[in-house]
Amino acid sequence: MQSDFLVIGSGIAGLTFAIHAAKFGSVTVITKGKAIESNTAWAQGGISAVLSETQREIGDNIESHIADTIDAGAGICKENAVRVIVEEGKATIDDLVNAGVAFDKDKNNNYSLGKEGGHSQRRILHCKDTTGFEIANSLIDTAKKNKNITILEEHFAVDLITSAKLGIATEDRILGAYVLDEASGKVKIFRSDKVLLATGGCGKVYLYTTNPDSSTGDGLAMAWRAGATISNMEFVQFHPTCFYNPSAQGAEARSFLVSEAVRGEGGILINDKGEEFTKQHDPRGSLAPRDIVARAIDHEIKKTGAQCVYLDVTHKPKGFMKERFPHIYETLLTFGHDCETYPIPVVPAAHYQCGGVATDTHGKTTIRGLYAIGEVACTGLHGANRLASNSLLEGNVMARRALENIVKTLPHTKTNLSPVTIPDWEYGDATTPDEQVLISHNWDEIRRLMWDYVSIVRTDNRLQRAARRLRNLRKEVREFYWGHTVTSDILELRNLVAASMLIVDCASRRKESRGIHYTLDYPKKNETFASDTELRRF
């Protein structure tokens, strides 16, 4: 199959790109599950933007948003990237509204603005507490109506095809991707000289995460294997408030996020004695940036031996949570918890990949024709710690900027691919039931060792232990991969190992504590390391 544009991923970044790219040619969007199964759809909080005189009247402006972003990023944000993305806030909201997104408004028909950790002003637009789901649905509906866009669900990208991989002695460039059609079990060749990675993050490398089960670092791992530069993978953000429900069954119950917007509306973190403890770590208390709050919770749990801390909203008027956060309120009720009567038990969980495939401010990677946008990419916006609600903004802005660059620098008329012969995918033998058990065991082992050794607080010793075990696991996974029929389980396990190793390798190189990378061996910031950590496979 061939198309002018091949998009891998169906969240805000991939679909925004597809909708705009359809004006210039055929677009194929592939996603390994259903189109709605993306990190975008799970985003509760909202999207940050400075876009009206009303906001400016209360003291907000573009420069303030930029300053907040850079402050959260702990010294390694790229100011140019921050400025480029933040300045596109109004264009982003207009673009999403045109796609059918209905952001909440107040009685005066102005956008209802929320506040989250690290933001100095109210600038978060939302659709109650299901903002991401509303955005995802609107974009999917818009894309499906476009005759130039083909969305292929349950198609799992296996590997990128590049000229270097085929041994062609020219500039390394993208030629397409090998893709598993899960219905037939066959790996097919998808040709395109313009490929966009928009696969989201890798939260599932950790035992506890707010991410959907699909977040296994697929695009990151494919780009790494293809030889693209990877940057800053030591910076994995842990969300402070994941609902603690030890008897939970099912993915949503195990990883249900209680949005930071709840703290923005007055929720307070307390310990089991009812004491507010976060101000001992930062004067902003429960609304400090996420890295500070997550470490404060981790410290409190270890100090007291408690299983969790609590997010208290019981002081808010009755009915407030049901009105402002209906999804959170109702979901907690299904788990048997009334948050308006009892504080919500919470723990930190892996949430957002701040590093990723290194790109410029147009999404260009180090491989010609390969672009990466959204969570899979590292543009320099987030630095060492993402400011809340900047991610949906980045996904939309970078989608439009990537297309703008492609139109200017790459042919965008009807596909005219070079006459390169691409070999078919090599298949292995059938996987036995016993080996399926081993695959499941390795999956669990990776996630547990990453949680135990490479999570909120790290040490050199823990990182070294993780690296040794991951090297052995990589060998085992390689045997599964090349010796057996390709399945989605094997592909995810392969990518999970690669993403985990990239996190560990980057973390081992940063001999300081900065942002969301905190190590007991180097507890202070060291300006010698005030730069990106970059890795590339040769």
Question: What features would you describe in this structure?
Answer:
This protein is an alpha/beta fold. It folds into 3 domains: 1-235 and 354-428, FAD/NAD(P)-binding domain, CATH 3.50.50; 242-348, Alpha-Beta Complex (Flavocytochrome C3, Chain A, domain 1), CATH 3.90.700.10; 433-535, Methane Monooxygenase Hydroxylase, Chain G, domain 1, CATH 1.20.58. Helices cover 36% and strands 14% of the residues. The chain contains 17 helices and 18 strands. The protein has helices spanning 12-21, 39-42, 53-57, 62-72, 79-86, 89-98, 131-144, 218-226, 251-254, 260-264, 290-304, 320-324, 326-334, 391-409, 433-453, 460-483, 488-509, and strands at 5-8, 27-30, 47-48, 124-125, 149-152, 155-162, 174-181, 186-191, 195-197, 230-231, 236-243, 268-270, 309-312, 344-353, 356-358, 370-372, 377-378, 534-535. It has a 5-stranded parallel sheet with strand order 5-2-1-9-16, with helices on one face. Strand 1 (5-8), helix 1 (12-21) and strand 2 form a beta-alpha-beta unit. Helix 1 runs parallel beside helix 14 (391-409), helix 4 packs across helix 5 and helix 15 (433-453) runs antiparallel to helix 16 (460-483). The radius of gyration is 22 Å and the shape is globular. The two termini are 29 Å apart.
